[in-house]
Amino acid sequence: MAEVEETLKRIQSQKGVQGIIIVNSEGIPVKSTLDNQSTVQYSALIHQLVMKARSTLRDIDPQNDLTFLRVRSKKNEIMIAPDKDYFLIVIQNPSA
Amino acid sequence: MPVMLSCWLLLCKVGESEVPVSTQLTTWAEIAPAGSQDSQSRPPDTSASEADGVLLEGWQKYWEHLTPSGQAPEERKLLKNKMEFHPPLPPTSVKGGLPSMTSFFTTPVFVWHPIGVMQARIRCPNSNCPAPPGEFLEKKGFGSYARQVCGMTNSYTLLTEKLRCPYCEKVRRVASEPHGDTEDVGGCREQHYIWLAHSPKILMNLAPAVRSMFPAILCGKRAVDKGVVTLLNDRVNGVCMSKLQRLLQQGHDEKKDFSTYARQVCDMTNSYTLLTEKLRCPYCEKPQALPMMLYGASSTLSAILLAPPPRDYIQANQASLVLVESCKVKLINLRLSKEVFDSQGRDVTPLPLVAVADDQESKHEKPSLEEVLFKTGSLVFKSSTPSDMVSSRMLGSSFASLPVESGFLSRSSITDYSFPLHDTDAAAAYEFPLKPGRSGEPVAQAFDIILSETDTFSLLDLSPILISEDAEDADAVNQRNRVYAEFCSGKMGSDNYLERSSQALVGESKCKYTQTKKNSSVNKGTIATIWDIYDSFSMPNGYREIRETEQVDYLMSTRKEQDSSEGSMSGHSGSDVSSETELDADLFVVKTEPDLEKILLSEAFMNSTLVMERVIVLNIFQPQLAAFRGLPVLKDPDSEVRPGFEEHITEKKDKYLTPTLEPLWTFVSPLTRGHSITSMAWNKKNPDILAVGYGSWSSGNPQPGLICCWSLKNLMWSERVFPCHNSVTCLEFSSSNPSHLAVGMYDGSVAIYNVQVGDHTACIADSRDCAKRHMQPVWQVTWTKQQLQLSGEEREEVLVSVTGDGRITKWLILHNGFNCVDLMILKRSQGRKQSIGGGQSKTENVLLPQTTVLCIDFHPDDTGIYVIGTWDGGLHKCSLSNSDHFLDTYCKHPSPVTHIEWSPLYSDVFLSSSSDGTIQLWKLDTLNPKMSFTSVQSIVDSVKWSPNSCTVFAAIYRQHVEVWDLSRSIMLPTVVHHAEPGLTLSSLLFAKGSDSVLVGDSRGEVTVYKLKNFRVGKGKKVLNLDDVMASVAGYVD
């Protein structure tokens, strides 16, 4: 537990990291470093995106699964580590 | 309209005189001719009224005759101010001779006095009447016509007063005077100004209240009481026959004993008096009350009245309609003798009942029917008219349908009465000659009185259940009727008897409507994706069930979540923003606390965070890593600062500049600060993993050390940190077990770590428990492949360590623990001697103290050969197969050899570094160094071959790093990189597949340097080294 917290703390302290959101399997944020509105928005939208991406992958090959999703954008990069029970979402601006 | 009405027998005479006597009351005068039947039956003071013909016996006190002269009978004046007059009751017993019959033949009288009694003001009905508005009709005597009204229980006589309009009379009189007519026209004139009070014109002029007092409905010839009409209306309107019958029976059927001589028998319309005769049997002393025949007649009458016996039909039990067809009842069949004689022969023939009987003259006349009937007054039913009886018998028929108009009433049927008198001597009929039979001669001169009725009309056919007498089951029905009649008759007398009819109701169907809720339909859909199907079929059954329940829970929880969110939304509508967020936050935390705990504790989440951290770091260090890999650095096209452009320029510039070491990044963490880096090793399998050994010597004593495994994927944080009990001096990865990391420590312990495991169980072997463990610091550990068998098929990598006690030890992980076998034990003297002269006595060697072995390296191709470097500067080539002797000894270094390394690309060549500040290049078969490199007089801590180029190596000094490229220069190092002041560089390592050098320093930092502008010829590596060596061979040699 402490180790995980520490890791999260480290992640947050990395350069350009704007926020960390942990979303449970239902798309409800359970932990966030962002403000409330952004958290809700990110978790709801990214939940859909991840579901779609995972569904796409698994439709192609049911034995495959989505392990990581990086969305690179002009302003930042959204990195999603999906799992059965949760999503870990980190928003980072590497060039910041 | 099948109304059967019999006409009155007594015809009304309309006399030519002014005194018309036409009512029933007046008939008495006719029946009894004036003068002939006089003083006995008539009041003596009414002689004057004989001419009037009105005999109102018993009523005289009510009337007053103003004009005894008898000119105008209408001058009679009513004495009592009332309209109904009832006659005195007839005598209930008759004593002596026959009483006057008139005392029995009385009816009530109703005198209609709309003005005299009611004080009604009646206007003249004439439309052209000249009377002023305040004037009304005045009364003018009484009408001479008396009308019989058929009442409920009695017939009564209706008299009325006359009304006269004086103004109309004047008009008429004036109009008729010029003609000078006689009074003959007066009657005609009266029609216009004199009215009877019960005429329709007058009645219509009356007020309704006054009009309702008028009791009868008058028709042309007949008059019916309103009560009868009402009653019969009831009958028609549904009152059953039995009710009517009972009503009548209650009033009429009084069964008293017959001891009274005169009985009032109530008929439908009239009461009639029943008189009987005392008969005395001369042979019996006691006279009998009544002959049986008379009783029979009486009962027959009653029977006729109540229930006429049907002759041709059997009346069913429930049928209430009486059908009588041609009921000819032979009422009386009396056989009476003319004279009655007693036993003594005296004539005991009773006197006639009526006075007429005494009239001898009339004996010989044929009496009229009326005479017969009335004189034989003992035959009581004759006292009333037969039509009464007939009509009373017509219970089945109805007066209800009687119209008020006279036109219908005039259709009276003819009374068919026949009294055939079989004996011409009518006197026999009323003389009752009860003479004792003279010598048995029948004295009977019998006559039959047959009352016959007209045909019965069916008013209403309710289709009674009637069957013919000839029918087969007629007897059974008769029997049943009889039983029923007996039953009824038994019941009828009791008080509880109540006859009631009811109609069975037909059950009606009823429509009922119910309103229900609208059927609501719900659409449900689901999508089955390929992977969902795959999951469902691939997962084990138990897990599938769990998953289904989870899905249900999921639905439930979402619903709850929605509910709570809705509730909170509604609750927040009125609150301000800050409290809303607080509330939301609270809700958020409370709801997700267990969820978060679960997620954070899961191993997968740790893995995710690891990956995420790496990804983030890689994002950050992407340019550096690209440089490290030798890849072109991709610049962010959107970044505003465009360093790529500048760098491109500088790069071009640098092309012609001297090679330098450019720092890329540093492996450092808070844990490693204060430690000195003693050794570094790349993982053999995964070249991205770097193991770094840390040690610290504060005030000369070794402190607990540290092993960190860094990954190129996470430059910010070491993936593994293994704390050690002592300072780490050396470490090396195994190549057959890539995760095994051998560690040598300052206290002489050797350990093997499994870097796959991150926790304390990573240490899979430790020599501290071994009895033969090293007591001196372990200066180097390395792995080599052991040739267990001569065939060489099965090779297992073993750990070899060299220590300060001169032992070269092979370590094995056996079933009983971590054990070691000494490959060789070096002796100082031996080495010395061998290095000096050659073969010496073995005894000396044994006794000499051990020397320190500082480094070892196995031949990369022939694993049986290895070279060791010792503290005293000697290099020894040894073989695994010979543990006693060196194969060769290379002597060049005067001071301790710090490092030996075989060239990874060029076989049989190795480098050695020494604390004397020189680097020697050796060939295997040559005991003298091929080359020697010296730049500064400083301790060379280590020398490393580049894994990429055979002519490149690097050496680390305390304060700087040198990179030599032999193809460029063999005299001077190509790159010299000085450390920061006060910093001691301690360890050096080339990166595989990269032009980079890793330098560890005393601060615990590992800096990665890029060899910039460092270009070596590729493809000719080996040749180059050969050429270099060849070129320098002569020089060196």
TrEMBL record, chain A:
What is its biological role?
Answer: Acts as one of several non-catalytic accessory components of the cytoplasmic dynein 1 complex that are thought to be involved in linking dynein to cargos and to adapter proteins that regulate dynein function. Cytoplasmic dynein 1 acts as a motor for the intracellular retrograde motility of vesicles and organelles along microtubules.
Keywords of the record: Cytoplasm, Cytoskeleton, Dynein, Microtubule, Motor protein, Transport
Query: What is the protein name stated in its UniProt record?
Result: Dynein light chain roadblock
PANTHER family on file: DYNEIN LIGHT CHAIN ROADBLOCK
Say which family it is in.
Answer: Belongs to the GAMAD family.
Q: Which residues form the Roadblock/LAMTOR2 domain?
A: 4-92
**One GO BP annotation here?**
microtubule-based movement
| Cell compartment(s), UniProt | Cytoplasm, Cytoskeleton
Q: Which molecular function terms from Gene Ontology are attached?
A: dynein intermediate chain binding
SUPFAM superfamilies attached here?
Roadblock/LC7 domain
**SMART domains given for it?**
Robl_LC7
Write down a Pfam family by its short name.
Robl_LC7
